[in-house]
C-alpha cells in the first residue's frame, strides 16, 4: 500500500488510481468504458456504508465476496458468472485492469459486480462488520525487496481488517507463486487469533481449489516453472 495524501488533500481522480495507475495507453473503447460504465458500478466510500453489504447490489444479493487486486479480471468475471446470486466487489487501482474487467462485464452483461478503484485498506474500513463470506487475493505484487516488504498487502493490520468484515466461517484465499511471500503470509496468518489454515495435506495447498479459474498471470508463472500455492484460511 502506497503512501498517499489524506482524503482532504487529493481530488477524486487522484484517489481513484494511486500507485501504478496506468500502463499501456487505453484504446478508445476502453477509455469510453472508464468514463461511461465505471461510474455506474463504482463504490463511493465517501458515502455512508449500507448496514447490509448485500444492499450494494440491485437487486440485493444473497451473499457478498471481495477480490483484491483482480488484475485482468479473469477470475472475478468467471466467479460472478458462476454464482449469479452472489454479489462481487472487485478492488483494483490499476486503470488498465479496470478497463479489462469493464470490457468483460459489458460483453457478458454481468450484473453482480461492483468496483472500487483504490486502496483495499480504505474499502475494508468502509465495509460493514461481518459482511463478506470470502476475500480473494490472487497473485498480488510480492514486493520482493526487503525494504519494500511493508508495502505487501498481507500485514497484521490488514489481516485484522479482513477479520472484521468476514463472517464467522468466512474465508480468506491467497494464491501466489513467490515462495517468500507464501511463507510471509503463512507466518502472519498463523499468529492471528482470527484465522485457521485449512490445509490438511500437501495437495490442499499445491492444487487449486475446485472450480478455480486460472488467471493469465498464473498461466505465465506455470510456463516459467514457478509453482503457485493455494492457501485457504477460515475466519473463526
TrEMBL record:
Name of the featured protein: tRNA (guanine-N(7)-)-methyltransferase
Keywords: Methyltransferase, S-adenosyl-L-methionine, Transferase, tRNA processing
Family that this chain belongs to: Belongs to the class I-like SAM-binding methyltransferase superfamily. TrmB family.
Organism of origin: Bradyrhizobium agreste
Pathway the protein contributes to: tRNA modification; N(7)-methylguanine-tRNA biosynthesis
PANTHER family membership: 3-DEOXY-D-MANNO-OCTULOSONIC-ACID TRANSFERASE/TRNA GUANINE-N 7 - -METHYLTRANSFERASE, PENTACOTRIPEPTIDE-REPEAT REGION OF PRORP DOMAIN-CONTAINING PROTEIN
Gene Ontology molecular function, alphabetical: tRNA (guanine(46)-N7)-methyltransferase activity
Methyltransferase listed as a keyword: yes
Catalytic activity: guanosine(46) in tRNA + S-adenosyl-L-methionine = N(7)-methylguanosine(46) in tRNA + S-adenosyl-L-homocysteine
Binding residues annotated for S-adenosyl-L-methionine, in chain numbering: 67, 92, 119, 141
Pfam families the record matches: Methyltransf_4
Catalytic class of the enzyme: transferase
Compositionally biased region (Basic and acidic residues): 1-17
Amino acid at each position: 500500500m502506497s503512501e498517499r495524501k489524506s482524503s482532504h488533500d487529493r481530488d477524486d481522480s487522484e484517489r481513484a488510481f494511486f500507485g501504478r495507475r496506468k500502463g499501456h495507453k487505453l484504446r478508445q473503447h476502453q477509455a469510453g468504458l472508464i468514463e461511461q460504465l465505471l461510474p455506474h458500478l463504482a463504490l463511493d466510500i465517501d458515502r455512508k456504508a449500507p448496514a447490509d453489504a448485500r444492499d450494494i447490489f440491485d437487486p440485493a444479493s444473497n451473499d457478498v465476496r471481495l477480490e483484491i487486486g483482480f488484475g485482468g479480471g479473469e477470475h472475478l468475471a468467471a466467479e460472478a458468472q458462476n454464482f449469479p446470486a452472489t454479489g462481487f466487489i472487485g478492488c483494483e487501482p490499476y486503470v488498465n485492469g479496470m478497463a479489462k474487467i469493464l470490457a468483460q462485464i459489458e460483453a457478458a452483461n454481468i450484473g453482480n459486480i461492483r468496483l472500487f478503484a483504490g486502496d483495499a485498506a480504505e474499502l475494508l474500513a468502509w465495509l460493514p462488520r461481518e459482511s463478506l463470506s470470502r476475500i480473494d487475493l490472487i497473485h498480488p505484487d510480492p514486493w520482493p525487496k526487503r525494504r519494500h516488504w511493508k508495502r505487501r498487502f498481507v500485514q497484521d493490520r490488514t489481516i485484522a481488517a479482513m477479520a472484521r468484515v468476514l463472517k464467522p466461517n468466512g474465508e480468506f484465499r491467497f494464491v501466489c507463486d513467490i515462495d517468500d511471500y507464501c511463507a510471509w503470509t503463512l507466518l502472519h496468518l498463523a499468529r492471528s487469533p482470527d484465522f485457521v489454515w485449512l490445509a490438511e495435506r500437501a495437495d490442499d495447498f499445491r492444487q487449486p481449489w475446485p472450480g478455480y479459474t486460472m488467471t493469465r498471470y498464473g498461466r505465465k508463472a506455470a510456463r516459467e516453472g514457478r509453482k503457485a500455492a493455494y492457501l485457504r484460511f477460515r475466519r473463526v
